[in-house]
Amino acid sequence: MYALEDNRHTKIYNAAIYVRLSREDERSTESESIANQKEYLTKYVLEQGWNLVDIFVDDGFTGTNFNRPDFKRLLKAIENKKINLVITKDMSRLGRDYIDTGFYIERYFPEHSVRYIALNDGIDTFANTSNNDMSPFKSVMNDMYAKDISKKVRTTVDLKRKNGEFIGSFAPYGYRKDPNNKNKLLVDQAVAWVVKKIFNMFVSGFGLIQISMALNKEGIPSPSAYKRKTSNYKGRGNGVDLWSFETVKYILTNPTYTGNVTQNRYVKINYKVSKLKKVPKEGWITVNNTHEQIIDSETFNHAQQIFSVRDFSTKYAPKDGTHLLSGMIYCGDCGSRMTFITTSAGVFYAICTRYKNHRMCTRHSMPEKELELCLVNELKNISAYASDQERLIKAAKKHVGKALNDSGIDYEIKEIETRLYEIQKTLKTLYEDKLKSIITEADFMDFSRDYNLEREKLHFKLTKLNQEKQKLHQQEKETDKLLNFVKDLTDFNNINKPLLVKLINRIDVYEQRKIAINYNFIKPF
User: Fold this and answer.
1) Class of residue 376 by CB neighbours under 10 A (exposed 0-12, middle 13-18, buried 19+)
2) Residue 353 neighbours by CB under 8 Å, 6+ apart
3) Residue 175 pairs with which residues in a beta bridge?
């Protein structure tokens, strides 16, 4: 124990003991326990003959910020002049953020005539000792310790995420944690039907706001309201537990509902700031087949397709809602998206955005109604052709089979694989010749460089061929499903956006009002 000057003979001290323990500290040493800190400091205060006014305890709170309930209560007691001495076991108990800790030691406590003691560090702000000069360095070291602990915790958490273990405090709406394994999700049958309802409404053409309003009208508790009711969730904000379009969108874009646990969608800004920021989709951590799905993959992917093409802009929207083909039409020449403008007579035209915004390219102007009519007429022709299901499927499969045969992909793949095997053998022979001094090392390096270059080119070509083959096989696999879907549709007069998203990849518009439709299935004629 350090001998600290306390001027106790000339000043009466009303002391406050402050103790803190975070979850990270609990893993370090038993001596940091709340009970140990309280006993240690109480004994010291009484030995000095000071008045012990109160003991302030923050159990389970990090030292990287000062947003702690009992620390705030301590500050209030200081401002009410009830306390003029604060004592902690060491500086890290006060805080691990060197900026804010320095503020309280160097500014706040002196301005309020409060003496601060960090007993084990030998720091006493009313004593003229060299230990006080070291306090900024100790504070920085405490901050670095917190940063190091944060990195280790984050590494452990990321490893669990990559292993498919759910690490959230609360399960996503529609799921609950397995009571025997808190890192595994089980379907919550009480509300899983709501998730299905949301997806079904969305792929049927309802918007996010329409869905949220319908759920609120039906009196279905929102995820936050349900969480308050079924867990110890306290929540935040004004306590208004209603469905919002953001909540609906979060559910519709969460791959976890397909049985693939998806985490790391939001992260803390850093180890000191609790505020979250969105992570780009490529940064999400998804592990497949970790739990039972609520939504099948086809429905989920369909919902994502709708998000990718839906136009949320209403600047040029018709009175009855957004444009049917918005997000799906492109300039056939420059590849830019087409946008809609309206004439003084209220007629909508699709034009090239590159032309509209920069006067580059050309207008590619086409009346919206004419564009829709061309599309509907072609879909009607396909539907009529689909009346003979057997003929339709055979035509589509024949088309894919012909594409595979005509491309000669299998022959090329075999040729490349044979050549790669020959190169491997040749390189091995060359190496043996070098060892036997039949060829020089310089010759070996020259030969190797040429063969390795050829091998790299062949590997690249082989990858492309396999991708093309896989794509053609996937088209063949999807043909029955998509074309049967088209066949079942007989009335295209009331066509809707979700249906178009499922059937059409994109529509290219050329000058002279010519269009080319790129379908998500093999066109049978």
Assistant:
1) middle
2) 331, 336, 337, 338, 339
3) 187
Question: How does strand 285-287 pair with strand 329-331?
Answer: unpaired
What six digits make up the tokens of 375?
């599309």
Say which residues have a Cβ less than 8 Å from residue 47's Cβ, sequence separation at least 6. none
Q: What are phi and psi of 177, to 5 degrees?
A: -80, 140
Answer whether 312's CB lies under 8 Å from 327's CB: no
Q: Would you state the structure tokens that stand for residue 198, as one six-digit string? A: 């949301």
Q: What percent of the chain has pLDDT over 70?
A: 74
Domain 175-305: CATH superfamily, name plus number = Putative Large Serine Recombinase; Chain B, Domain 2 (3.90.1750.20)
CA-to-CA dists, residue 492 to 16, 102, 319, 375, angstroms: 78, 71, 21, 10
In 174-295, at which residue ranges do the beta strands (DSSP E only) sit?
A: 175-178, 181-187, 261-263, 266-268, 276-278, 285-287
Superfamily name with CATH number, domain 14-149: Resolvase, N-terminal catalytic domain (3.40.50.1390)
Query: What is the pTM for the complete model shown?
Result: 0.45
Whether 502 shows a pLDDT value over 60: the answer reads yes
The pLDDT assigned to 388 comes to: 58
Nearest to 8 by CA among 40, 37, 45: 45
DSSP string, 282-310: GG-EEESSSS--SS-HHHHHHHHHHHHH-
Backbone CA torsion sign across 191, 197, 203, 209: negative
Q: Residues 333, 355: contact at Cβ < 8 Å?
A: no
User: 438-462 burial by CB neighbour count: b if 16+ within 10 A, else e?
Assistant: ebeeeebeebeeebeeeeeebeeeb
Burial class (CB in 10 A: 0-12, 13-18, 19+), 119: buried
